[in-house]
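User: Predict the complex with NAP.
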Amino acid sequence: MICTPLAAPTPDDLLAALPVAAAAADWLELRLDALHDLPVEAVLRALHHVLPRRPRPVVVTFRPREQGGFRDLSPADRLRFWHTALTTPAEAFDLETDLIAQLLPTYPPNHPVWARVVVSHHDFQATPADIHAFAKAHFPPFAGTVKLAVNVNQPDDVCRLFDWLTGTPSTWQKIPVGMGGLGVLTRILGPAYGARWTYSTGHDGRAVAPGQLTATELRETFRLPSLDRHTTVAGLLGCPVAHSLSKDMHNAAFAHLGLNWVYIPVEVSPDDLAPFLRDAIHPRTRRLPWTVGGYSVTLPHKIAILPYLDRLTATAARVGAVNTILVSGQELIGDNTDVAGAMRPLQQRFALAGEPVAVLGAGGAAQAVVSGLVGAGAQVTVFARHPDRACDLGNRFAVPIAPLDDFHGRRFVGLVNTTPVGMAGYAEGACPVPPERLAGLAWVYDLIYRPRQTPLLQAASQQGLATLDGLPMLVAQAAEQLACWTGQDIPESVLFAAAERALADFKAAGFKSAP
Ligand code: NAP
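Assistant: Here is the predicted structure with NAP placed in the model:
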């Protein structure tokens, strides 16, 4: 069940938003506290006007600013509102815990309205240490549903929210909401484990609480209605992960293969990496209740993760970095599909054995590219803006390192850019080397995929050189991961289509600053 908040400034806007939100939501939350500065009586009139026109069941909310609401409300305003609102036929009412005692004289515990009440507690700082004790102390036993919306600061908080959701049976229906990066697990998997619903962003796509996803994403990308306790969970560990295309590709692949799997990007800070691996992923120590299929690993964890894995595949050991975690029995294995991902599209287009190839940059992606190029027999030279920092790479693969400014195309057949120069949000519009230095090359490969046509590739095309952008690599490394995790081959066309759709949405949304 997906519940979409409608936070409209006027009653007319609220009415207009109903059908828009109803397209992807199962429930609509009428955030009446968002109606700008209307007196309580006018808010109640708006509620009476909207209710007969509701296309879905609604939950009515009228929250004061200090508890996360949109406006200042005195205790008297709130009580006046609820004494009348609770007599309406709305399917549910969201009441903050501090109101309960004051409503009891009019609505005693045996009053039938309590079956429709969601008693809520919000904490934008932290998760209670003992959630069971907290719930017992703060939520009345006669409420039909209780909602705990709390900031999750560490993996342990997420584990305890799921423990509360799935643990001791109670008469309540529960809604745990983890706010913040790690909370995405409660937002996507909560309903599969019994949560009454999960909240999406508002109908206009704007988040009304940290970490929300749109209803369309929840329904179509993550296929929330089909998730259950048998769903195998995969995902991405990184920081940030917000604009990753992996969720689009992997979830499209699971849908195509008919697998009951879901792929969830989780924003894991460097400090949370070890506890997240312990509590959420490792088969010997995992506390979360689902089967883990595997994880992708991205910046900044590709190297930091090495000490926490039981072993590495030969490829990951050669590269010295991991972009894929496999679960095998009781072991966590680190693999690297960036090598195959980078090389497959390149080898399909160009001969490499014995050819002089220049690589720009010496970071994580360069490790995979140089490993693959050396393996294919190319004569590799790495050009880095800080050659001293690239010594490890040079020693590991026995390749020369040169200053970036020394690059000249005439000494090489091919050029691979592994720097982020030209990527959306980072030195956008810039070229990592002066375009005139491309002269003499036969081909240029840019690992950047956002945008696909970087200034470097545009300059190369204008000079008649063959070009390859970064999307085929992204797709190929994802296809390799899927094969490792599921044992099944996925047509790359499915992954391409999903990635291209997401890139088009990204462009249409006008995001500029995403990595
Ligand atoms: P990284 O580990 O941060 O490495 C970046 C490298 O680029 C470093 O050597 C860095 O040098 C250099 N660099 C950064 N800014 C520079 C500048 N202004 N001028 C010259 N050199 C600069 O990042 P990464 O993981 O390797 O990723 C690099 C790029 O590859 C990103 O655009 C990423 O999106 C892309 N990528 C694509 C795929 C794919 O599937 N297509 C996969 C992985 C990565 P310093 O050490 O001096 O900072």
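The mean pLDDT is 95.
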